[in-house]
């Protein structure tokens, strides 16, 4: 099966969660439901979606930016100690923050690495670094946000004394076919190109394919949102909802364990880092579980209405992809790694994923594109209408 984007990120999360995921044994029950008991399918063909064809265009500037990012990896790192700081520069700096002339806690650092424009410093300091002369101490007046975590600094005016020591830069390598061959070899692409022109051609084709994938994913998202709105829901399968909720919680809690291990986060600190509270976390989990089950029911019913089925070959190809992704020797080894009581459910999800892709393509092919009106075209239409009205009068 060719690789494509799963437009609903939640679906991908759910499909992958079963590998090595520990759930309680009650959730392993494989109850078969008739989705017609829960959904009255609305219209799903010829759905109008707004698109922008410009999203499919790869400009020369975009191509050159991607090309430059690749060949920079083969350049020589240098420290630029003259000139001025620009947005996007990776800099090394010393700074000291002063409140009423006195250095405040945690406001001083030496040899700090920072990417200008990343937004990791407060906004005034981040913006104030642009244009600073390398090697010269400057004072940057800043105001801390009113909602800043430290109450002693929230809303306060301060001065940051800053010296940018140097900018990390790269001396580009010689751009010749020898470099192209090295790039191809390092990335397993020796059958794709062997010259600089070939590298650029390959990059453009890859970027155009990625743009088309993203364009189609956006079409699907917009169309499927309308399809869901046209459906009538009457509850949902309890076991499938509970499974979805369990998997979502397990996925998030597994990520939390990584944060706890590497950064010493508590649960509350982890939630805060994700921009959530316990209440919003609970809402996210339940809403996501409902969305997943609704999506699965509608996808399945559309597939049934259109006569889509999953062949053994398609299922095995899908399973093979996951075996390779998780570095199992074979699909049998992958299935052996899943506890027996969860295995049938995992196989069912694999087959559902194949079905999902079929419906995904079907919806994309059968929706109606409406070109997004640009500001210029809107102004032109208004001007033409005004002119016509004046002429008529």
Key phrases:
393 residues, alpha+beta, 5-stranded antiparallel beta sheet, two-stranded antiparallel sheet, 12 helices, globular, disordered N terminus
Brief write-up:
With 393 residues, this protein is of the alpha+beta class.
Question: Using only CA atoms, what is the Rg?
Answer: 27 Å
**Portion in beta strands:** 15-25%
Point out poorly predicted stretches. 1-28
| Helical run tally | 12
Q: Can you give the helix content as a percent range?
A: 40-55%
Approximate shape: globular
Count all strands and give the number. 9
**Largest beta-sheet characterization:** 5 strands, antiparallel
Order of helices and strands: HEEHEEEHEEHHEHHHHHHEH
The chain-level mean pLDDT equals 89
Give me the secondary-structure category.
alpha+beta
- Terminus-to-terminus distance: 62 Å
What does the secondary structure layout of this molecule look like, with pairings?
Elements: H1 9-17, E1 39-40, E2 48-51, H2 60-71, E3 76-80, E4 90-99, E5 102-115, H3 123-128, E6 137-143, E7 157-171, H4 177-186, H5 196-230, E8 232-233, H6 238-263, H7 267-273, H8 278-306, H9 312-325, H10 331-337, H11 340-366, E9 368-371, H12 375-392
Parallel strand pairs: 2-9
Antiparallel strand pairs: 1-8, 3-7, 4-5, 4-7, 6-7
